[in-house]
């Protein structure tokens, strides 16, 4: 049995801390398109955490489009799928604003993981992404 104070990282990929301007776009419950500027605080191959000073009216499990601002997309520190523009995501955690923290959303990138395909004598890495 492991000690209670020992933590285990269960993530399949590491998070990278960033502070990049981004935008979220979604449809509200009436079907109107809404958008807001946010700051991406960390990224991984499968997720991104964003913060916004104003409370966001985005509920848990809502599908939203995430995109980094154009002038910061070419950084080598961000996953390839985020460099290509809009990515479909799902909200899987909402952190309300407190006195010391901004309103936060954890977003799951709805992209297929990279996979290797063997073609004859060489291996090709394919990457696909879901967009809406």
Number of helices: 1
Task: Report the C-alpha radius of gyration, rounded.
Answer: 17 Å
Annotated CATH topology: Thrombin, subunit H
Largest sheet: 6 strands, antiparallel, barrel
- Tell me the β content: over 45%
What structural category arises from helix and sheet content?
mainly beta
Key phrases:
single chain, 132 residues, mainly beta, Thrombin, subunit H, 6-stranded antiparallel β-barrel, two-stranded antiparallel ribbon, 1 helix, 46% strand, globular
Explain the overall architecture.
- The chain is mainly beta and 132 residues long.
- The chain has one domain (16-126): predicted glycosyltransferase like domains (Thrombin, subunit H), CATH 2.40.10.220.
- Helices cover 3% and strands 46% of the residues.
- It contains 1 helix and 8 strands.
- The chain has a 6-stranded antiparallel beta barrel. The chain has a two-stranded antiparallel sheet with strand order 7-8.
- The termini are far apart.
Give me the secondary-structure topology:
Layout: E1 16-27, E2 33-43, E3 47-52, E4 63-68, H1 80-83, E5 87-95, E6 103-109, E7 115-119, E8 122-126
Antiparallel strand pairs: 1-2, 1-4, 2-3, 3-6, 4-5, 5-6, 7-8
Summarize the entry for a quick read.
The protein is mainly β and 132 residues long. The protein is built from 1 helix and 8 strands.
């Amino acid at each position: 049995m492991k000690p209670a104070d020992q933590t285990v990282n269960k993530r399949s990929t590491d998070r990278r801390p960033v502070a990049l301007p981004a935008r979220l776009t979604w449809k509200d419950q009436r079907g109107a398109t809404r958008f807001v500027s946010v700051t991406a605080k960390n990224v991984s191959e499968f997720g991104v955490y964003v913060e916004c000073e104003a409370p966001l009216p985005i509920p848990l499990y809502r599908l939203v489009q995430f995109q980094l601002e154009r002038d910061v997309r070419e950084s080598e520190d961000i996953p390839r799928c985020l460099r290509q523009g809009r990515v479909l995501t799902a909200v899987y955690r909402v952190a309300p604003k407190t006195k010391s923290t901004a309103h936060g959303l954890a977003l799951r990138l709805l992209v297929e993981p990279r996979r290797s395909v063997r073609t004859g004598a060489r291996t090709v890495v394919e990457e696909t992404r879901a967009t809406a």
